[in-house]
Structures are given as C-alpha cells and as structure tokens.
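Slide 14.
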Amino acid sequence: MASSATIFFAGIGTTFIIIGAGFGGGLMFANSAVHNVPAQTRASSHLADPVRIILPTTAEAAAAPQPRDAVSQPVPIPEIKAAEKQVEKVDTRRAEVEQRERKKHSEERKARKIAAARAKRQMDAKQQLEQQHSPQPGIMAFDGVAPRQVSLFGN
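Slide 15: predicted structure.
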C-alpha cells in the first residue's frame, strides 16, 4: 500500500497536468482564430465595388417607351405641366389621406391606452376592497419545543 504523501503528490501532479492541457488547448484555439483569415473574407475582397441604384418614387408616373421616330419630335411643354399638376394633386391627396390615417391610428392608440389605465385602476380598487373585507390570517405560535434539526456534521 502506498503512503498517503505519495497519493497526495500524485493527485496534485495529475491536477496540474490536466489544467496545463486545458490552458494549452485554449491558447491553440485562440491563436488559430486570431491569426488565420477565413477563406470567405479573402474571396469577397475581389468583388466589384457596390453600385448605388436610385429608383423613382411611387408618385412619379413611369414614362412610356417611345419609338425612335417619336424621339426626334419635340414634346409640348403644356402637357408636361398638366401631368405635373395631376401628380401634385395625387400627392397632396395621398398625403392628406395618410395624415388622416396616422391621426386616426394615434387617437385609437390613445383611447386604448386610456381604457387600459381605467381597467387597471378599477382592478386595483377592487383588490383593495377585497383586502379590506377579507379577514386577516391568525398568528400561529409554537410552544418553544422546536423539532430537532439534523445536520451533516452532528452539531
């Protein structure tokens, strides 16, 4: 049978070996994550620069494609102004409708918030009334003989 000192030092040595292996593995993972550049990053650096695309707004009417013969003819200016006025009228109508809808939604939200606050106040008042009318629980007293407590160390 081995002495207790030998067993003690063997346990300490095993503990240090396990902790050292854990730290070594952690350093190995950390170094590989810091120094290696992922393949996706290297491949994406060769892509072309992004291009900004500007789309027309929904309020603007899309221009119909014109045949090559019609391109050389001048477009009368009064028609363009009339189209602009129509677009402005449509824009103002849409803006007014959207503004009314936003106002309506905000009023509905405000009404729901007020109703929820009222309901909460009513519930709180109801709970307070129930607490006032409910009897208070009695106080229990012990006769001084406490049950024996069992502990692991015999105290």
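Speaker note: The radius of gyration is 41 Å.
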